[in-house]
Design a protein that fits this description.
By secondary structure, this protein is of the alpha+beta class. Helix content is 49%, strand content 14%.
Length: 196
């Protein structure tokens, strides 16, 4: 499910807290979902669904396998921006292009594991296995990078900026962001808000 950021909004932006988002929901967001935008379903019609976001109301674009009957007003959903979907799809294609190199890397890891189990310890065998692993790692990265270089001209400048921001983050940054938010939220009651 995606939404388009260029949709006009006649309402002011609203905070997620005002929509009912809490630490309880935030704690359920997985590492692979931190780039998704939380939104609350506002309307459900036979052929469309709208949601409230921090940007205001947006019309959601459902995938072909999704029915509007899967949603109810008040549900929370995590939604990808359309340009993020394009970048993710491009990244996945680049990873798939390196399948044979990934298989070689698996073999190099197996060879390292075998070298580590030689008795007596064989320093040169382990060194050769590490060289093989580094070489296979480089081959994987090189194939992925070359595939991306050939495809990045399909992205506009905003999409390339989003990709740049994504690639500039260190692994685990999303966890640190969530920990800081969790520290700010301490003292708030856990669990979904009560509605009378």
């Amino acid at each position: 499910m995606t939404y388009s950021s260029d949709q006009p909004s006649d309402q002011d932006a609203v905070s997620l807290d005002a929509l009912g988002w809490s630490a309880f929901y935030d704690a359920q967001v997985g590492p692979d979902e931190v780039e998704l935008a939380p939104m609350r379903i506002a309307t459900v019609h036979r052929d469309r669904v709208t949601a409230m976001s921090e940007l205001g109301p947006v019309r959601l674009k459902l995938s072909a396998r999704t029915n509007t009957t899967d949603f109810a007003v008040g549900d929370w959903v995590l939604v990808a921006r359309e340009d993020r979907m394009l970048v993710r799809r491009m990244m996945m294609e680049a990873f798939r292009s390196a399948e044979s190199q990934v298989e070689q890397r698996r073999s190099a890891r197996t060879a390292l594991g075998e070298a580590l189990q030689i008795e007596p310890y064989d320093r040169e065998a382990v060194r050769r296995a590490f060289v093989g692993l580094r070489t296979s790692d480089e081959a994987v990265h090189s194939e992925i990078h070359e595939t991306l270089v050939d495809r990045l001209d399909e992205l506009n400048i905003e999409q390339r900026k989003a990709l740049s921001e994504m690639l500039s983050r260190e692994p685990g940054d999303h966890r640190r962001r969530r920990e800081r938010k969790s520290e700010r939220d301490r003292g708030r009651p856990d669990g979904p808000p009560d509605h009378d």
